[in-house]
């Protein structure tokens, strides 16, 4: 194993805080990862990690060396990509994760165009609504929807995702068509959406003169997936607020109808995240450009 590979292995061990998890994300045997760190410590003449039965943590010297490793690996990848970009283009395995509906309805159907444009890149596409840990799971980049906490990850804004209010014709026939949020108190109900990560229920929201407002709205059904959310609305169980692209087929088929178009919720940011490095790999760069070009017209991003 050459020195750059040793640096890559060491950096992944620090990021995962565990030899086994690091080995899994690198696709290497645990023994190989352990031996690589021992070889690196031998070459440097310093102890880089404090080891316990459950996890490892860098020593003071190890923490300083980790930062240097990131720079060295980034420099090497940048140098390699200079020649790859000019000859055969970016190459290797790209591991990405996107929200469920975005992945199934937009990204996966369009992937042939990306693979044709970059024949040296293979893609592992994760499609899930949970919060993926990029480092521990060896993911190169993730697409997230909504306001994000400070995570130490590099964030590339993709655009603002518009949401609309919809209901089924059967629901509106029973409960009437709400024209403003004030009408919701007159016997209307929603389908509650619980975050798959936190379990938190999303409130009913709308913009009032540029200010986001919320109001309690009764709901007898709670779901934690977009598919169930849409299906419950089509079944007449209540109003929902959802990205416009997500229900275009149902609106076109007459299964759902937009209501209160002047009182939509605030749009949500879409962001591509990748681990902190001096610069993202060429694979991530070209995928990010392709994804943004794909999502803007498909999702009506502002």
Layout of helices and strands:
Blueprint: H1 3-16, H2 19-26, H3 30-44, E1 49-51, E2 56-58, H4 60-86, E3 92-98, H5 100-117, E4 121-127, H6 134-137, E5 141-145, E6 154-161, E7 163-167, H7 169-175, E8 191-193, E9 204-208, E10 211-215, E11 221-223, H8 226-234, E12 240-243, H9 248-252, E13 257-259, E14 268-274, H10 282-299
Parallel strand pairs: 3-4, 3-5, 8-11
Antiparallel strand pairs: 1-2, 5-14, 6-14, 7-12, 7-13, 9-10
Description of the molecule:
The chain has 302 residues and is α/β, with parallel strands linked by helices. The protein has helices at residues 3-16, 19-26, 30-44, 60-86, 100-117, 134-137, 169-175, 226-234, 248-252, 282-299, and strands spanning 49-51, 56-58, 92-98, 121-127, 141-145, 154-161, 163-167, 191-193, 204-208, 211-215, 221-223, 240-243, 257-259, 268-274. 41% of the residues lie in helices and 23% in strands. The strands form 5 sheets. A 5-stranded mixed β-sheet has the order 4-3-5-14-6. The chain has a 3-stranded antiparallel β-sheet with strand order 12-7-13. A two-stranded antiparallel ribbon has the order 1-2. Helix 1 packs across helix 3, helix 2 (19-26) packs across helix 3 and helix 5 (100-117) packs across helix 10. Belongs to the LysR transcriptional regulatory family. Keywords: DNA-binding, Transcription, Transcription regulation.
């Amino acid at each position: 194993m050459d020195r750059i590979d040793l640096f890559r292995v060491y950096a992944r061990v620090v990021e995962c805080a565990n030899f086994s998890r690091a080995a899994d994300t690198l696709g290497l045997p645990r023994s190989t990862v352990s031996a690589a760190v021992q070889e690196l410590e031998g070459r440097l003449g310093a102890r880089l990690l404090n080891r316990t039965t459950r996890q490892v943590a860098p020593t003071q010297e190890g923490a300083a060396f980790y930062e240097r490793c990131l720079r060295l690996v980034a420099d090497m990848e940048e140098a390699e990509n200079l020649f790859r970009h000019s000859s055969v283009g970016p190459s290797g395995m790209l591991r990405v994760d996107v929200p469920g509906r975005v992945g199934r309805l937009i990204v996966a159907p369009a992937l042939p165009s990306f693979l044709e444009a970059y024949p040296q890149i293979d893609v592992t596409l994760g499609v899930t609504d949970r919060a993926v840990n990029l480092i521990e799971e060896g993911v190169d980049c993730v697409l997230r929807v909504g306001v994000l906490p400070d995570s130490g990850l590099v964030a590339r804004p993709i655009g603002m995702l518009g949401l609309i209010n919809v209901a089924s014709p059967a629901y509106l026939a029973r409960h009437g068509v709400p024209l403003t949020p004030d009408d919701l108190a007159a016997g209307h109900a929603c389908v509650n959406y619980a975050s798959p990560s936190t379990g938190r229920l999303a409130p009913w929201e709308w913009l009032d003169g540029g200010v986001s407002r919320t109001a309690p709205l009764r709901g007898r059904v709670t779901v934690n997936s977009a598919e169930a959310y849409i299906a419950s609305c089509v079944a007449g169980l209540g109003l929902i607020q959802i990205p416009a692209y997500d229900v275009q087929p149902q609106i076109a088929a007459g299964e759902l109808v937009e209501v209160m178009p002047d009182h939509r919720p605030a749009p949500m940011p879409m962001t591509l995240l990748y681990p902190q490095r001096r610069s993202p790999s060429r694979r991530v760069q070209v995928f990010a450009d392709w994804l943004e070009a794909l999502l803007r017209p498909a999702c009506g991003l502002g």
